[in-house]
């Protein structure tokens, strides 16, 4: 492993330990409620960026994967009593499968058509779930999760630590992908598919891999959701704001590296959490929309791009 | 120079109703230096696209070392040892110069020390000083060198240079020729598509000329350039420029 690898691993370890210790310092459970959502968006942004950032395929359907993960775990728990870690694995498998399906159907089309097709995925999934009585239809499903284990201070603290572990796993995966032959191949695909192929890169397979991994991570972000809210229903599980945030956060942070979506998610989700208590949640979408337009127009390479540019200009 | 490395028979490619290429029969012998000339739009790049799998021919077959590769995807052909440059450079933007070379080194197996190999090739094409630069910062000229470096870094058996010298100075043309020569000495078969006649004449053991998708002449450089049809379609056109 490289020096950067050790530093990263150590940092992740410290973050996980801090997450476990935090409930002993912060007594107000609200921080963990809010922290859960912020971390959930770190996972979503990171998952989205594997396909959207590394490979350059803009997926408007993140909410479809998130919702599928949420419904998978709610159903598996209610029907079979499968615990969260089990449904987390199931959600990953379903997300990967959905990603592959989406890839097979849409990867041959490019650019804006791919984006439109992914939007269709959300509508299809939401409609299907609306019409399955076993999944609660439009009314949704109540999920009475088991009490948290003894070491946890309470349900929100427990869910927070769980999402932290998922976030650390997702970010580690995204980092590995970026730095390995996979990421290099995807960047080559993004720059020029023909040149990538002629350099020996199996572009279709690599893109399908990115679809599957991205889908798995997005679904993993949704898996704990029913246990967090004790309830799932189609409108919130497939919410517009999830799909919008999934795109906005990496764009704000920067799509070229694993740090970008993390920074974007931390900034935007924290702002949203503060805004939700101080203003209203409807203004959230408006806010994200405005920020997104601003970044696309003024800083297409995100905050990391802005900082890098400043750096190069200073050196010149 | 006995068995063909590449062998095309009856290769045809149309775009809509317009037939850009063929039918073409053409062999490239192992370790041969083949020059391809012909006016713009003659179908030279289309031929290369059919050889490398960027395009599928509508009919006909392409063989590499005896095996039919007509249906193989591009990346497999690259891994077999068929390499090319693009007429319009296709750098991997968002990557440094050296990382551009690491792409083929990651995916075309067989090179032990990848970073050393990349450095060695950059040295050879004169891009060492640019190794860490983002590829988008390169000049048009440097992009051509990068294109060539990326094509040869994976030790191909066949290298196809599609107008790799366009826009280069005489000294740089000599440099590129020297690189292609030394590759050829190591056993690589080279196809050079070029408008720069003196380079083609010096380099090629055999020259073929294309016009409107057809192979209209084949022979030594001298024979082909003296061919009256070639004179008419090619040098006639060139004279107008
Ligand atoms: N992808 C394509 N779609 C439509 N027409 C094409 C395409 N590629 C090449 N052509 C046409 O095919 C003909 C041959 O082009 P090309 O092979 O690039 O010629 P050359 O390389 O000899 O200059 C030209 O008329 C060109 O316009
Ligand atoms: Mg051409």
TrEMBL record, chain A:
A Pfam family the protein falls into: BPD_transp_2
Domain of life: Bacteria
Keyword entries, A-Z: Cell membrane, Membrane, Transmembrane, Transmembrane helix
One GO cellular component term: plasma membrane
Residue intervals passing through the bilayer: 7-26, 32-51, 58-78, 84-105, 112-138, 158-177, 208-228, 234-253, 260-279, 285-307
Membrane topology according to the record: Multi-pass membrane protein
Entries under InterPro entries matching the protein: ABC_transp_permease, LivM-like
Localization in the cell: Cell membrane
Protein name: Branched-chain amino acid ABC transporter permease
The organism of origin for this protein: Borborobacter arsenicus
From TrEMBL, chain B:
Stretches assigned to the ABC transporter domain: 6-237
PROSITE patterns: ABC_TRANSPORTER_2
Keyword Cell membrane: no
One GO CC term, this protein: plasma membrane
Keywords on record: ATP-binding, Nucleotide-binding, Transport
Entry keyword annotation includes Cell cycle: no
Coiled coil: none
CDD domains named in the record: ABC_Mj1267_LivG_branched
GO molecular function: ATP binding; ATP hydrolysis activity
PANTHER family: CONSERVED COMPONENT OF ABC TRANSPORTER FOR NATURAL AMINO ACIDS-RELATED
Protein name listed in UniProt: ABC transporter ATP-binding protein
